[in-house]
Amino acid sequence: MQLTRYTDYGLRVLIYLALLPHDKRASIDEVSDMYGLSRNNVNKLVHHLGRAGVIETVRGKNGGIRLSRKPDELNLGDMVKLLEKNLNIIDCQSPACLILPACRLKGIFVQATEAFLNELSKYTLNDLLGENAAPLRQILDIS
């Protein structure tokens, strides 16, 4: 299974925001410049994550984006389910598969996906930072 770039970029945005001091906000331009992502992609992610209540967005002179919850309250499994449009490993309908009525492969892939998400659900955004918070802040030039 490979997650989409959208999910990859979304997790990067969340990591960046989790590293910010609690009272600081980032701009969309700041995040897109830091990771070398298009402003349009980051804007879509911010809109999606904001609608889901994961990040807080504030317009205006002192505006910006930041996490709406603490990093230890943001479960990785939930974040992947939120960002990833389709977690199906295979599509047995397009084109329609001849052996579908007797095939067990789809069920096995469903179980594998559930195991994958269950494993991710053991971790939070805070677990991604841990002892790496200081080096990550240095790499991303966050003070």
Features:
143 residues; mainly alpha; Arc Repressor Mutant, subunit A; 50% helix
Major β-sheet strand ordering: 1-2
SS field, number of helical segments: 7
Structural class: mainly alpha
Determine the fraction of residues in helical runs and give it as a percent range: 40-55%
Head-to-tail CA distance between termini: 36 Å
Number of domains: 1
**Helix and strand run:** HHHEEHHHH
> What is the CATH superfamily?
Winged helix-like DNA-binding domain superfamily/Winged helix DNA-binding domain
Major beta sheet, specifics?
A: 2 strands, antiparallel
CATH architecture: Orthogonal Bundle
Radius of gyration: 18 Å
CATH fold-type name = Arc Repressor Mutant, subunit A
Shape: elongated
Description:
By secondary structure, this protein is mostly helical. It has one domain: Arc Repressor Mutant, subunit A. It has seven helices and two strands, in the order H-H-H-E-E-H-H-H-H. The protein has helices at 5-19, 28-35, 39-51, 76-83, 105-120, 125-129, 133-139, and strands spanning 55-58, 64-67. A two-stranded antiparallel ribbon has the order 1-2. Strand 1 and strand 2 (64-67) form a beta hairpin. Helix 1 (5-19) crosses helix 3 and helix 2 packs across helix 3 (39-51). The longest helix is centred in the last third of the chain and has 16 residues, at 105-120. The radius of gyration is 18 Å and the shape is elongated. The two termini are 36 Å apart. The model has no long low-confidence stretch (mean pLDDT 93).
